[in-house]
């Protein structure tokens, strides 16, 4: 997949902590948890998990906000074994802080995708809405990335979509 915008390419392919990078570009950073719990996995998520693993999974969806503006939507598929161990009491803490502060987690290559802004509706988070994206001359297509972390026999899928207000689209 060719990404002509060098700023966007750097954001999408950066292997460091997205949380830390976002924090460097804003005054106030916050994680707004949309929800976490048992939920059906998408078929493409199931393909990213090892076959035959007898594991219970939870889905966590959050908005990563900078200065009260949602910049990133993140969806994570988490094994309950890690939620009872290394990732216990995650709450509204950024998942990335836990993953990048524990060298035992190993990250896969990124899978990139494009998504229409109309796919996202966050209600109270109006700044992330497609209507706001149109008003701010945001790109007609949002970009996202997905990677998988593993620790021993446990796997985590982390998908991140850069929303219209994100600095990833500067110079687009």
From TrEMBL:
Which GO terms label this protein's molecular function in UniProt? chorismate lyase activity
Entry's EC annotation = 4.1.3.40
Q: Name one GO cellular component term.
A: cytosol
Q: What class of enzyme is it?
A: lyase
Location(s) in or outside the cell: Cytoplasm
Which Gene3D superfamilies does this entry report, sorted A to Z? Chorismate lyase-like
What's the main place this protein lives?
cytoplasm
Keywords per UniProt:
Cytoplasm, Lyase, Pyruvate, Ubiquinone biosynthesis
Q: Which reaction does it catalyse?
A: chorismate = 4-hydroxybenzoate + pyruvate
Q: In which pathway does it act?
A: Cofactor biosynthesis; ubiquinone biosynthesis
Annotated GO biological process: pyruvate biosynthetic process; ubiquinone biosynthetic process
Residue positions binding substrate: 60, 95, 160
By sequence similarity, the record places it as follows: Belongs to the UbiC family.
* Function statement: Removes the pyruvyl group from chorismate, with concomitant aromatization of the ring, to provide 4-hydroxybenzoate (4HB) for the ubiquinone pathway.
Protein name per UniProt: Probable chorismate pyruvate-lyase
The UniProt gene name for this protein comes to ubiC
